[in-house]
Write a structure and sequence with these properties.
Length: 747
Amino acid sequence: MSIADQTINTTTLQAEAPPVADGLHAVTAEVLSGLYRHIDEAVIREYAANGVDATKQSGSDAHVEVTLPDAFEHNLIIQDFGTGMSPEQAKVRWASYGNSSKNDDPDFIGAIGAGAKSGFAASTMILLETTQNGITTSFNYTWFEGVGPQVVGENVEETGKPNGTTVTIPVDPQRDWETAAQRALLYMGSRVRVNGEVVVDPRGDNPAVMHRMGYDETSLMKSSRVVMAGANFRVPETVLSVVSDVILPARASLGNMVIEVPNKSLTFTPSREDIKDTSANAQRLREIITENYAEPINAQHLSTSPWQTYRNVRIGDEGGLSVDYITKEIREHIDLVEEILDDVKETYGLVGVTYSYGGRSTWSGEQREQPRGRSYYGISRETITRGIQAEQIGADHMLFVYSPEGNIHRSPKVRTWIMDQKPHNYMVITVADEDLFDKIEAVGFATMQDEELRKYKPKNYIPPAKSTAVRYVAYNLYERRSYHTRDQKLSPADIAEHYDAMYVVAYGRHLPTSRFLTFEQNCELLQNHFGQQRIAVVEMSPQSSKELAVKRIGLPEVDVDSVIGEFNETATSTLPEKYARKIVMLSELERFGMYSRKVEDLQEAVKVKGDDDYGYRASRVQTIMELLELTDTVVELTGLEEPATITELRAVADELTEENWIDDMLDSLAQHDHTLTVEQRLAMAIDELTKSRRERIVSPEASQTFFRIDNSHRSTDEKLQMVSGMVVSQAYHQLLGDEEENTQRTA
C-alpha cells in the first residue's frame, strides 16, 4: 500500500454507527475550533503546554517530545511523561468543554478546557493514548459534520507503559510546522524537544522580567511578546505603550522585547494567542514592570551621585552599558555625566586607542579619515565621545587625569600609557576642575595627576627606528612581542646590536609557527633547535630589498621554515593509512574542505543522527543516511535501480560508521611517544591530509550529489524531488543505451 493510500485511510476513518447529533455541542466545538488566527502555532502551543504542565505536575524533569510532520509521516505527535489520565478523566477532559483541571491553579495556564480540542482547527481527527498506573486508554476523537467531535473506538487495557499522554493529529505536511513550533515553544524554558532537538530558551534558565530580543528572535517572532507559564502571547500596541512610561532603552530604542509576568496576571483572548486590548491589562502590565523590574534595577544601579550611577551601569567589560533597559532616574544621571564629558571634549579634547578591523585606530578630539593601509579598509578615527555612545568602551577603561592647564592629553606619555594597558581599549580624559576631579576620584574611577603621568615609565620600551632608506620591523623570537609587529621598529644598527641571527619575512607575514602549538610550545621548539641564539624576525616593507637588508644588518640568516616543517612531519607520520583514508573522505564531503580539527568535531561528523545545535550541517553521515532513506523509498515505489553515485555514498557511509574507529585512531596515536598531546597531533594530521594533493577517494560525481542534497534550506519534498529525478534520469539513459545497442545488433 502506498504512503498516500495509508494517509487517506487514516484521515477518513469513520465510526461504524454515527453518534446522535448534539446541536449545542456541535456549535460550541465549531466556535472554539475556529478561534485561532495562527492555527499551526496554536495547536502546537496548546498540546505542548498541556504536556509541560502534566510533566511538571508529576515531578518529572523529562522533556515533552514533539514530532513534526514531513513528506512521509503526516502526523503531528506530542508526547508527555506526566501523570497520564484514567479512562474517566480522559473522557471528561476531552469530550466536553468547561472542564479544565487548571481553572484555579496559578501554575498552569489552562482555563476553559478548549486546549485539548484545538487539534480540530487543523484536522478532523485526534488520536489519544494516555496511561495512568498501568491502565492505558486510547480512542479516536473524530469530527462529524453537524454533530461535532465524538469519541470513537475507545479501548482500555492493562499495559506496562509508563505514565504519560501521546496525542497524534493527522495534518497537512505542507504547512510550515517548523517555524510554528519555534514560535510556540521558544520561551517554555527549554522543556520541549522538537524532532529530538531541545528548543533552547534564549533567556536562559532563570528568565529576567525584561529581555531584549536578538536579531534571530525578532525575525522569528515579528513582535514583542508577554510570557505566562511558558506560553507566549502577542501584545497590542496600546497595552505595550505603557512600558515606555516606566522604563527607557539603554540603547537607541526599546526594540522587540519579551516580558515575563506572573501566570494569569493578564487576561488573554479566547484563542490564547493575544493579550486582550484593555485598559485593565495596560494598568496591570505597568504595575508588574514597575514592581518587578524598575524598582529592583534602581536599587541595584541608582546612586545619589550621578558619577556612581554612571559607573554602576557601565562597569564590567568594554561592551558599555550592562543592562538593556533603564529607568528615567538612571537616564537623568547618565545624561548629566555624558553632558560633562561632552563639555570636557569640546574644551580639552579626549584621546584613546582602540583596535578594530585588525588594525589600530587612534581616537582624538577630531575626526580624520585614515588612509587605506594593509587591511584595505578606510577606517574613521572617531572621537572618544562617539566611542562612548557606541558602547565600545566601558567605564573601567577610562583614565581621568587632573591637569589644571588642561593640556596633558598632548603629552606623548599618554599614548605610551595606553599601549601598556591590557586590553588597549582605553581613553584618557583631561579634567581641569578640581571639584569635578574629586567627585570622580571618590567614586572609584581610575585617576592620575598630570605630574604622575608625565613621570610614567613605559613597561615595554622599544628604541625608535632611525631614519634610513630601508625600514625594518624586528621581533624578539622568545618574547610575546612577536605578536605586536607594528610597535617594534628598529634600525639595522639596533638589530645587529641586540640579536645573533635573523629570519626575513615578506611584508605582512609573521614568524612561521606550528599553528596547533601554544605560543610557549612554539618558542620551546625553536629554542631546542637554535639554542640560546636571539633571532630577529625582520619584516620587509614593500619598498625594501632583502639583499640590501642582509647587507646592512650583517647577521647570518636561519632557516626556521625547515625546522617547523620537519617537526610537523614527525608529528603526523604515525597516523595509520586506514584512518587517514576516512579523514580524507570526510574532507571530500565538505564543499570547501574540512576545517574542523577537533576530536569532537570528527565524532559529530560521523553520527547517524547529528546534533543540529552543534554546528551548521555538522554530521555528514546523517545527510548521507537521509539521502539513502529517500532513495530507498523512491526505488521501492518505482522498481527502478538506484544511481551509482548513491551506491558509492552508501559504501562511504558504511566505512565512516565503522564502530569505534575514532577511538581506535586515538589509541593508535597514543602508542607513539611524542612531546605533543594526541589531540594536537591529530589536529596537525588532519590539517596536513586536507591540504595535501592526493588521489580522490570519493568521486567528484558522488561529492556533487552529496552537495546538492546537503542543504539545510531545502525541504524534504524538494530533496525527494531531486532524488526521484536522479533515479528516473538514470533509468532513461539506460533505456536509450539499450535501444542503441539493439539497433546496432540488428544492423
